[in-house]
# Entry
Amino acid sequence: MSDTDRDLDSAAADKPMARRVGRVLLGSSLVAVGVPMLVLPGPGLLSIAAGVSLVASEVPSVQAGVDRLTRRIRS
# Structure
């Protein structure tokens, strides 16, 4: 486990569980609503990005995936 993973785990452990669950549910809902908006009128990509950002702030494995994607896009 790297130092970054430990930092993410300790930061997540400091937050109240209800707030963490609420952010994950809200983020998941934004992603679920954003997917149909890709073909229907509405800001689908923006909703998906906001939802993934909320989930990534609470789930270290999702944050690692976002970091990997960011590195791949920048290279």
Notes: The mean pLDDT is 84.
